[in-house]
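Complex 484.
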Amino acid sequence: MESMHNVTLLFVDDEPLILRSLVRALKNEPYHVLTANSGEEGLELLKEHPIDVVISDKMMPNMSGIEFLGEVAEQYPDTLRIMLTAFTDLEGLIHAINQGKVWGYLQKPFEIDSIKLTIEQALQTKMLIAERNMLRSSLARYKNEYRAKFYRFVGDSVAMQTVYRAIEKAGPSRANVFITGSSGTGKELAAEAIHNSSERSSKPFICLNCAAIPKDLMESEIFGHIKGAFSGAIANREGAASEADGGTLFLDELGEMDIALQAKILRFVQTGTFQKVGSAKTEKVDVRFVCATNRDPHQAIADNYLREDLFYRLNVISIDMPPLHDRGRDVLLLAKHFLQQFSELENKIFVGFSDSAEQLILQFDWPGNVRQLENFIHSIVVMSDGPLIDYDVIQAHLPSDLSIPVQPKGEEQPKQVTKAPQDQLTHIKQRDDKKVAPLAEVERVAIEQALLVCDDNVVKAASLLEVSPSTLYRKIQQWSEATS
Ligand SMILES: Nc1ncnc2c1ncn2[C@@H]1O[C@H](COP(=O)(O)OP(=O)(O)OP(=O)(O)O)[C@@H](O)[C@H]1O
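Predicted structure with adenosine-5'-triphosphate bound:
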């Protein structure tokens, strides 16, 4: 509450003697006191001064106290209104109180102590009303900012609200953005949202996946080439840099880009200029950079996958996408969203999940994040009949080597689900603690799980497992040779 020295009181009475005695009685109190001889004069003062409490006589010529306080209630609802009354017209006073025109009353002839007490109570009430209004407006603001959908994102968890706010702030700026997060957490969606919330939204959003493009074609993909620059360059070709002019260039999985090419990207980021492969002509474009990686960028720098100077140029704003298992009940919102999406796509009817199915979805760890959940729901929509997806259906589609207890008949209790895949080693150990699984088996389970999570994308699976893609190819080849 404002300090009492900032409190202004207004007394309105047609008897100057009463006004003088009131001012005298309050002269040692920390209030700023104004007086008026009529309701009309009181309204003039209200126009000029912010007044906290008005105390008005009831019986006055022309405008009565009730009329005056009624006007104050309408024009200045935050000003508290007290009536001085001789109790001759109790009915009129009660009516005025019930209509909200008057907050309280003081009986004439008044005791000065009771005036002080009533003023204090009025100020307390005013403080409570102000606090309540402040809480209400911050609640409304909070609810407004609390979103379950944001661009193409679904999710109302606290973790995602932080992401939405970061995108909202970063989007309209000119700053480059570096997005980190595990595979399938929505980094590309975030890059798209940054572009769409920027002034560049009507210009192109060009996405280049550095892991998907062979190393020797990458430079030409980014900068373009001229005819004859290399064998196969049969015509001039624009690269992503030119296509993104005026818009946003999203370099996904930047840590997979050849370290030598990263030096050229650094110059491009610094100057906006580049040369097409095979050309000596310097071209200039206006591009905003958004980059992403599912590696820890600092580790990638230490391992010589990422140039430090490039990282610091690009990492003006960093956004970290939370793993799905840190988003609480978002997993259910997403499961329902994908169920609806794929039901429409596959032209099938599903009404939702049973309670125990939802519990199972909630308990699973989703190591492949939203992408894994998306693929999982798609496979269920394709493979099952609906209309309600029950526990058994979810259980049957979860990775087969996870131990999920069979649901006893008629029971709808949540079940214990072993987490995967990070905890698979624990899981294997738990299966029979007297028997230790051979290292090769443990390794194979981990690799198969990573491939499942990454939709058989070996480069991504290798990155999750923190080994090189060639190691993974070698292992897969060994197994296929062993089984053939
Ligand atoms: N919050 C979300 N709401 C709805 N769909 C989402 C959400 N997050 C991700 N998706 C969907 O999940 C899939 C994976 O998202 P995305 O490609 O953006 O992830 P990523 O982090 O870029 O993955 P990667 O690192 O493997 O490239 C996409 O189909 C995307 O539309």
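Confidence is low (pLDDT under 50) at residues 401-435.
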